[in-house]
Amino acid sequence: MTITQLTIQGVHPIHGTHQALLQEIIEHSKAKTSKHLNDYALRLNGVSLDDAAWARIQQQCFDAALDVTAQAQARALSDFKLVAMDMDSTLITIECIDEIADMQGLKPQVAEITEAAMRGELEFCESLTRRVALLKGLDASALQRVYDERLQLSLGAEKMLKAVQQAGLKTLLVSGGFTFFTDRMKSRLQLDHTHANVLEIENGKLTGKVVGGIVDADEKKRTVERVCAEMGITPDQAIVMGDGANDLKMMKISGMSVAFRAKPVVRAQADVALNFVGLDGVLNLF
Fold this sequence. Notes:
Layout: E1 5-10, H1 19-28, E2 33-38, E3 41-45, H2 51-63, E4 66-71, E5 82-85, H3 96-102, H4 107-118, H5 124-133, H6 141-149, H7 157-166, E6 170-178, H8 179-189, E7 193-202, E8 205-211, H9 217-231, E9 238-242, H10 248-252, E10 256-260, H11 264-267, E11 272-274
Parallel strand pairs: 5-6, 5-9, 6-7, 9-10, 10-11
Antiparallel strand pairs: 1-3, 1-4, 2-3, 7-8
Helix pairs in contact: 3-4, 4-5
GO molecular function: hydrolase activity
Keywords: Amino-acid biosynthesis, Hydrolase, Magnesium, Metal-binding, Serine biosynthesis
Cofactor: Mg(2+)
């Protein structure tokens, strides 16, 4: 990619604390112009970077808890028609299955499998089957407890969604998690589409199984393709956000892939990596 534009942003105002670093980046990138978009974001235009300089700037920003995004050209939000999001650890701060497992006293065991799957070290269908099996016999009321007591939206999620919805973009929540939570997110956030796994419940208790097929990486990709086809658009008109290895396939077909608080394997392959700022940080890229 030919880099012509850099956007640097932080959780805290960047113009004071990071002034020396920002000045160094401006000089090394040979930026023709710089503009503060707001207290938290700076845009550099007309930059000229080789791979070594870009790698150095990425590391400098990461060390300073700043997010930096390189773009070949300015993009408008109106270039896109759909925002597709993973749920667990992307739209929301928790992994729901880990918190459900906590009700069984099994969070460490389940969380270990979750982490391995998200790093890409374990095939997702196998990992989900193993994790759900550990929940067998748990009272289904535990799901509501997780929703009420532990589920929180990620930083900037509501601001980001409000902006994209006002701009006329449709929204899709596609999750390797469970419909119990995606259904509630759809209603709460006025999302257009959701797709997730269905936990089997009999006599008020989890059976340790899911109903139907598992929403793995391939199914996530197919879901993005299906929703785009229904909308009459192509996947390159979609912004896709995720954090785990099972999000990579749907991210790769998108017009803009956003890795949010993501595993290294995902950060390395995404167009945008938001490691520190909220989901609304994507708005500064347009």
